[in-house]
UniProtKB/TrEMBL annotation:
Name of this protein: D-glycerate dehydrogenase
TM annotation in the entry: none
InterPro entries according to UniProt: D-isomer_2-hydroxyacid_DH, D-isomer_2_OHA_DH_cat_dom, D-isomer_DH_CS1, D-isomer_DH_NAD-bd, NAD(P)-bd_dom_sf
Organism of origin: Methylopila turkensis
Domain D-isomer specific 2-hydroxyacid dehydrogenase NAD-binding: 112-295
GO cellular component terms attached to this protein's record: cytosol
C-alpha cells in the first residue's frame, strides 16, 4: 500500500474537514488552534510532505529553507497567497495551491454590508438601543446618514470578488466603475453596466465609495497611497475586504482623523491582528467600522475551502495537476 502523505495543518479547521483529512492522510492537526511560531513552522517543514497554512502563517524564504526533501506541496487554506513566498517555494520545486472561487460570494456579501454600514450608520445605530438607555424615540433629524442609491462605486480590482460586489451593488442602485490591470470582457462590462477607468487616479477623484477587491502583490502594496487617498472627495467612503497592505493605513487614519474623508469600513489591516490605534479611536467615535477579517467567515465557506484543500492534495498525490495551482504569472 502507498504510504499516506504526512499533512501538517497549521490551524484548526471545521470538524468535517479534519475528519476527512484524517481518513485520507496522515494528518497532523492543531487541536488547540494556537498560531505556530516561525520556528515551529520551520520544524514542521522538515518532516511534512504537505503543509496546509492559513493567512496567519508567514511562509517566508527562511522558513522554506528548512524544508525537508519530502515537502512537495503547500496547499494554502485561503485564496490570498501573500502569506507565502511563492517564488522561493517554486524555486525549490514545491507546488503551491490556494482555494479560489469558494469564498467569492461570502466576501462580496460582507463587502456590500460594509458599503452600507458607514453611510447608513448601521453599526452605530445597532449600539444605541442596547447601550444607551436614553433613546427617547424617533425624530426626523436624528442620526441621518447618506443615501446609497444613485452614488458611484469605484471597484479597485475587478476579479471574481470585484464582479460579485458589482452585481450586488447594481441592485442597490449604485453605478459601477472599476479599475483593473486588464479591462474585463465587453460582455462582463455590459452585464454589470460597468465603466472602466484606465487611470486609477482619475477614477478615485470621482467616486462616492471606493471598494478594494484586488489581491495583495508587490504591485498593489500601498496602491491606495497617501497621494492617491488625497485624490478622493471629502465626502467619499473607503471599504476594504481584500488586504490591509493595499491601503496606506496610517495615511487613511490621518485623513479620517482630519475629516478629509467621510468614513471607512475595513475588514482587513496592514499588521493583523494589530490595528492602528487611530482607527480604533475613530471606530469608538463611529467614524469607521472595523471588522476582524470576517470576509469569508461562514461555515459553508470554510468547509468548501477545506474541501478544495483536500482535492488539491489528493489530485497531487494521485499524480495529477492539482486544480488550484498557483502559477508564476499570478504573482
Ligand atoms: C481567509 C482570505 O480567512 O482566503 C483569503 O484570502 O482572506 C480569508 O477570507 C484566510 O485567507 C484563510 O487563510
Amino acid at each position: 500500500m502507498k504510504k499516506r502523505p504526512l499533512v501538517v495543518v497549521t490551524r484548526r479547521l471545521p470538524d468535517v474537514v479534519e475528519t476527512r483529512m484524517r481518513e485520507l492522510f496522515d494528518a497532523q492537526l492543531n487541536h488547540d488552534d494556537a498560531p505556530m511560531s516561525q520556528s515551529a513552522l520551520g520544524e514542521a517543514l522538515t518532516v511534512a510532505d504537505v503543509l496546509v497554512p492559513t493567512v496567519t502563517d508567514r511562509i517566508d524564504a527562511a522558513v522554506l529553507a528548512q524544508a525537508g526533501p519530502n515537502l512537495k506541496l503547500i496547499a494554502n487554506f485561503g485564496n490570498g497567497i501573500d502569506n507565502i513566498d511563492v517564488q522561493s517555494a517554486l524555486d525549490r520545486g514545491i507546488t503551491v495551491t490556494n482555494t479560489p472561487g469558494v469564498l467569492t460570494e461570502d466576501t462580496a456579501d460582507m463587502t456590500m454590508g460594509l458599503i452600507l454600514a458607514v453611510p447608513r450608520r448601521i453599526a452605530e445605530g445597532a449600539r444605541v438601543v442596547p447601550d444607551e438607555h436614553d433613546w427617547t424615540g424617533w425624530s426626523p433629524t436624528w442620526m441621518l446618514g447618506r443615501r446609497i442609491w444613485g452614488k458611484r462605486l469605484g471597484i479597485v480590482g475587478m476579479g471574481r470578488i470585484g464582479q460579485a460586489v458589482a452585481r450586488r451593488a447594481r441592485a442597490f442602485g449604485l453605478s459601477i466603475h472599476y479599475h483593473n490591470r486588464r479591462r474585463v470582457s465587453p460582455h462582463v462590462e455590459e452585464q454589470l453596466e460597468a465603466t472602466y477607468w484606465e487611470s486609477l487616479d482619475q477614477m478615485l477623484a470621482r467616486m462616492d465609495i471606493v471598494s478594494v477587491n484586488c489581491p495583495h502583490t508587490p504591485a498593489t502594496y500601498h496602491l491606495l497611497s497617501a497621494r492617491r487617498l488625497k485624490l478622493l472627495k471629502k465626502e467619499a467612503y473607503v471599504v476594504n475586504t481584500a488586504r490591509g497592505e493595499v491601503i496606506d493605513e496610517l495615511a487613511l487614519a490621518r485623513m479620517l482623523e482630519a475629516g478629509e474623508l467621510a468614513g471607512a469600513a475595513l475588514d482587513v489591516f496592514e499588521n493583523e491582528p494589530a490595528v492602528n490605534p487611530k482607527l480604533v479611536k475613530l471606530a469608538r467615535q463611529n467614524k469607521v467600522v472595523l471588522l476582524p477579517h470576517l470576509g469569508s467567515a461562514t461555515i459553508e465557506g470554510r468547509v468548501d475551502m477545506g474541501e478544495k484543500v483536500i482535492v488539491n492534495i489528493k489530485t497531487f498525490f494521485d499524480g495529477h495537476r492539482p486544480p488550484d495551482r498557483v502559477l508564476p504569472a499570478m504573482l
